[in-house]
Automatic annotation (TrEMBL):
Gene symbol of the encoding locus: secF
Protein's UniProt name: Protein-export membrane protein SecF
Subunit-level organization: Part of the protein translocation apparatus. Forms a complex with SecD.
Localization per record: Cell membrane
BP-aspect Gene Ontology terms: intracellular protein transmembrane transport; protein targeting
This protein's record includes keyword 4Fe-4S: no
Family indicated by similarity: Belongs to the SecD/SecF family. SecF subfamily.
Membrane topology category: Multi-pass membrane protein
InterPro entries (UniProt xref): SecD/SecF_arch_bac, SecD/SecF_CS, SecD_SecF_C, SecF_arc
Domain Protein export membrane protein SecD/SecF C-terminal, chain residue ranges per copy: 91-274
A Pfam match: SecD_SecF_C
Function, in words: Involved in protein export.
Residues that span the membrane, as ranges: 7-25, 121-140, 147-167, 173-195, 216-238, 244-274
UniProt entry keywords in alphabetical sequence: Cell membrane, Membrane, Protein transport, Translocation, Transmembrane, Transmembrane helix, Transport
Length: 282
């Protein structure tokens, strides 16, 4: 908690602008849930060097290797128009005449279906955000208090998306669900702070914020710890469950953003509102 509200507001705004620039220039990687395409998963019993396969595919597919308790999984993702060529390269790499000779599975999502997934995911986030904003406004009936909660929640989402762009975390149906959860976590901590500040006027602003921080940071850090444990368990023991790892990572990044936005941005604006703006009105 900073004494100068200008610095307190400037730091999260800088993160917000940086995130917008990252999203604008670098973009966010999208899974086949969103873009459409084919995913081929091949189970092998030993560790295989997939560099030659990557080289032969020449950028026509994304390939990664995952380790699990019962062996290794090679996952190849490509656009629908490249499927036959990719399959040919895989057969050459494993020296087989047919993929049926391998322990493999194949998942294909059409472009129309993936576009529908993406559209519905965006609708879900938009409606959740709109109804959250309405509920917050009616709860406080104060445009400044309501506006800063909504701004903090929006900033949490944008910074989370910027972090996904920076760390190449795919936007998928799973990470969209994580982003929906982010709205709930953000509103929870920001309402806690705003309610304490506006209703406990008998105490100083700093004392009220410190009390709110004890409760708010305890809740947020507990969730971050739980997500870290989940992430570690997945990475060490079940790396094939990369969807869980992506959800945990997105939530961790968003919750860190929420700490910055709640206790710097929201607290900074509330400090200005209580100590300067409202003081001049009295």
């Amino acid at each position: 908690m900073l004494k100068d509200y200008r610095v307190s507001i400037a730091i999260p705004i800088a993160f917000l602008i940086l995130s917008i620039l990252l999203i604008g220039f670098k973009g966010i990687p999208k899974s086949i849930d969103i873009t459409g395409g084919t995913e081929i998963t091949i189970k092998v019993d030993k560790n295989i060097d997939i560099a030659p396969l990557k080289e032969s595919l020449d950028g026509k597919a994304e390939i990664k290797k995952l380790k699990s308790a019962d062996g290794y999984y090679i996952v190849v993702r490509c656009k629908s128009e490249n499927v036959e060529e990719v399959k040919k390269k895989i057969k050459e790499f494993f020296n087989v005449n047919s993929l049926d000779e391998l322990n493999y599975s194949e998942k294909t999502i059409g472009a129309m279906l993936s576009a529908k997934f993406f559209e519905e995911g965006l609708k879900a986030i938009s409606f959740a955000f709109i109804f959250m904003a309405i509920a917050v406004y009616f709860a406080f009936r104060n445009p400044i208090a309501s506006g800063v909660i909504i701004l903090s929640a929006l900033s949490d989402l944008i910074i989370a998306l910027g972090a996904m762009s920076l760390f190449n975390i795919e936007l998928s149906s799973a990470t969209i669900a994580a982003l929906l959860m982010v709205i709930g976590y953000s509103v929870d901590s920001n309402i806690l702070l705003t309610t304490r500040v506006l209703k406990r006027l008998t105490k100083s602003f700093d004392e009220t914020v410190r009390e709110a921080m004890k409760t708010g940071l305890t809740m947020t850090l507990t969730t971050i710890t739980a997500m870290l444990i989940l992430l570690i368990v997945v990475k060490l023991f079940i790396p094939v469950a990369d969807i869980l790892a992506n959800i945990a990572t997105v939530l961790i990044l968003a919750l860190v953003a929420d700490i910055i936005n709640t206790w710097l941005l929201n607290a900074g604006i509330l400090r200005y509102y209580i100590t300067e703006y409202r003081a001049k009105k009295i």
